[in-house]
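REQUEST FORM: STRUCTURE PREDICTION
Request ID: SP-0412
Submitted by: Lab K.M.
Chain count: 1
Length (residues): 70
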Amino acid sequence: MKDLQRASDDVCVIAETVETLGKLLDRFHAQHGEKLYEQVFAAFPEAHQFGGGAHKELWKLSLKLIPPEE
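STATUS: Completed
RESULT:
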């Protein structure tokens, strides 16, 4: 059961990181414009996966991993 709790905690950290990266990408776009934003995506094509609600599915997974009370 401790392993499931640790896994849930780790997924929470990943979800927070994904959410933060999405916000940073949005802020970069707003501050630096489309041309530079496209260069970020050229260097890091997977960046589009961090936008929208990508982190929400990770939050759901972390809740599923929480072990039941004994």
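NOTES: Residues 2-63 form one domain.
Reviewed by: T.R.
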